[in-house]
Design goal:
Blueprint (H helix, E strand, L loop, with lengths): L2 H9 L8 H6 L4 H13 L1 H12 L10 E2 L7 E2 L4 E2 L1 H13 L3 E6 L5 E5 H17 L7 E5 L4 H13 L2 E4 L6 H11 L3 E5 L2 E3 L2 E3 L1 H11 L6 E5 L13 E3 H6 L10 E2 L3 E7 L7 E6 L1 H15 L6 E4 L6 H13 L3 E5 L10 H9 L3 E4 L1 H9 L3 H4 L8 E5 L5 H11 L6 E4 L33 E4 L11 E7 L9 E2 L3 H9 L12 E9 L5 E6 L3 E4 L2 E4 H9 L4 E11 L3 E10 L6 H18 L8 E5 L12 H9 L15 H5 L4
Parallel strand pairs: 4-17, 6-7, 6-8, 7-14, 8-11, 11-12, 16-17, 16-18, 18-19, 19-20, 29-30
Antiparallel strand pairs: 1-2, 3-13, 4-5, 9-10, 14-15, 15-23, 21-22, 22-24, 24-25, 26-27, 28-29
Helix pairs in contact: 3-4, 5-6, 5-7, 5-12, 6-7, 8-9, 11-12, 14-16
The protein binds adenosine-5'-monophosphate-propyl ester (PRX).
Adenosine-5'-monophosphate-propyl ester binds next to α12, β20, β24 and β25.
Amino acid sequence: MSSDNFQSVLTETRVFPPSAEFAAAARVNAAKMAELRAAAAADFTGFWGAYAKSELSWATPFKTVLDDSKAPNYRWFHDGTLNASYNCLDRHLATKGDKIAIRYEGEKGDTRNYTYRELHAEVCKLANAIKAKGIVKGDRVVLYLPHSPEAVIAMQACARLGVIHSVVFGGFSATALRDRIEDTGAKLVITADGNQRGGNVVDLKKACDEALALGCPSVEGVIVAKRTGHAITMKDGRDAWWHEATAKLPADCEPVNVEAEHPLFLLYTSGSTGKPKGIQHCTGGYLLGAMLSAQWVFDLKEDDLFWCTADVGWVTGHSYVTYGPLANGASVMIYEGVPTVPDAGRFWKICQDHGVTIFYTAPTAIRALMKSGEEIPNQYDLSELRLLGSVGEPINPEAWMWYHRVIGKEKLPIVDTWWQTETGSIMMSPLPGATPTKPGSCTQPLPGLFADVVDEMGEPVVGKTAGGYLVLTKPWPSMLRTIWGDNERYKKTYYGQFPVRPDGTHLYVAGDSTHRDEDGYYWILGRTDDVLNVSGHRLGTMEVESALVSHPRVAEAAVVGRPHEVKGEAVCAFVICKGVRPTGDEALALIKELREHVAKEIGPIAKPDDIRLADGLPKTRSGKIMRRLLRSIAKGEEITQDVSTLENPGIVAQLAGKA
Ligand code: PRX
C-alpha cells in the first residue's frame, strides 16, 4: 500500500452498520457472532470439533480434533476419513439433485448450466477416465484449464479418487507450467485446446506441449478438453480427448475415502525466493474452513447465485468457486473471460442476466471498472444483488465507496475479506449481518480465529492502536499443512520468524504489515517481504529477477514495486546489461524483448511495467542492493536519503534518469 493510502486509512472515520433488514434475515447477526466468539474462546477445540461434525459427512468419524504434538505441523481430525467430492456432490443429490450447481457463460456469450446431478455424473465419468489411466490415491495431476466448468469437474474428479490436484493458472507460461509439473511429479495433465480470453484464443494445448517438451519425465498422459475447437496437435499414445476418454464410461464412481489429513491439492504461490512454493492443503480441515467461511461471510442461502470472479487457478477460485459453495450445496456463476469484453459493462450484464445475488471480486477489477465511469453499471438492473465482497489486496477507501454507492446503491453490505493461499479460507472479514464496516478495513478475525499485531521481536504491540506484523496466534483447520517436499522451509517461512512464546504459542507470520485501530479493526497495509501484489496476484520480486537474468543480455536485475492506480502495484525492473549498455532505439528494442522474455518465463501478469537499463545497482559496501532506494526511484520521489555510504553513489542519479 502506498503512503497515501496509509494516510487515508488512518484518517478514515466512516462506519457503516449492517441494515436492520439484512441483519434480521442473516445467518449470523451480532448476537450470534458474539455467541460464536465466546464459544471459541471458551473451548477452542470443542468449537471446531462441533462444526466438523455438523457440517461435514464423515466415512469414519474422527475422535481427535487437534493434534499439536508436532507443532507447527498441526493435524486436524486426523483419525477421521471422508471424501471431499462426496461432501460437495453426492450428499446433495437426494435433496438438491435438480438444483443448479453451476451457471456458466463463455466470453463469447455461450452458456451452459449443470444441476448437481449433472455435475455429479460428469465428475464420475472423468474420475473413471483418470482411474483407467492407472492414477491412484496420492498421485498428482496438474490441471491447466480455462476458467470453466471443466476445471471444477476435474478438481472434483481428482478429489473423488484421493488424487492430489495442482491447478496451474492458464495465464502462466510453458516454462512456469513445466516447473510446477516437475515439482509435483504429476503423472497426468488435464488441459484444453484453448480458451477465450480478452477477445483472443489462448492456446493452452500448445503451451502444455512446450512444457512437456522441456522436461516433465513423470507425465504419462494428457487429457484434453475441447473448448475453442481450433487445430491442435495430439501426440499418439500420450494425449486423449476428454470427450472420447469419458464417452463410454459409467456416470457413477465410488468415492475413495481418505484420512482427513490426506492432501487435497497443491497450489503454487510466490514467496521471497525465486522458486514458487507448493502450498499443501488437506481434505478435512480445508473443506471445513472453505464451507463454514462461505456460509458465514457470504451469508449463503438456498436461492442465492454466488459469483466469485476469481479464476480457479488461484486459491480464491478453489475455496469460493469449487469447494466452499459446493460443499454448501449452493449455485455458483462461472464466467470464462475478462471484465472488459466486449465492454466494461460485462460483469454487470452477467449479474443482471443471470440474477447474481452475491458478487465477490478484487479491488483491481473495481478500480478498473470505476475508471470507465458509473454510467456503465447504471445501465444494468443490479437489483438482485444483496451482498458484495472484495479480496486479494487492500481496497482503498475510494474504491470501497464507489463499490458501495454505484454497485451497492448505498444499501448492500461489503465484505472485505483478508486471507492467503496459505490460510485456505477467509481469516478476517466482516460478517454482513453483524459487523459495522469501515471502508478499507477487513475488520476482525472470524469466530474461531485469532490474530495479533507484534513488533520486530514478536512481542504483542499493546495500546489503543497498534502497528506491526500481522500474526495468527492459534492454528486453524484450513491452514496449509506444509510446503510440498520442503517441510523445513514451511517451518522457517511461517513459524520461524519469532520465538515460540512461553505458553507454547507458535506465531504464524502472515508476511503482511497491519494497523489495528481503537475498535480492534485490522487495516492491512501490504507485504513485509519481497512479494508484490499485482492486480491481486502475488509475485515474488526474486522470481521476476531470475526470469530477467535468464536472458543472455542481462547481467543483473533488481525488481521492486511502485503504486499503480488500477493494479495496486506495478513491476519495476532495474537491469544491468552484459557488455556495453545499449541506448536509443537499441535500448527500446531490448526493453521490449525483456518484457516478452518475462512473459515467456512466468506469464503475461509478470511483465515489468517499467524497465530501466543502468550501469549498476545501488549497493551497500557489503554488496546488498538498497531496495528502499530503488522503490523511491521507481516512484519518482526526490532522493533525500544519505547515499554517501553506497559503494557506487553516482549510480543513483543515473537510475533516476538524471545523468
Ligand atoms: O497481502 C495480503 C493480500 O494478498 C496476500 C495473499 O495473496 P494470495 O496468497 O495470492 O491470496 C490472495 C487471495 C486470498 C495477503 O498476504 N490480501 C489478500 N486479501 C486482502 C489482502 N490485503 C488486504 N486486504 C485484503 N482483503
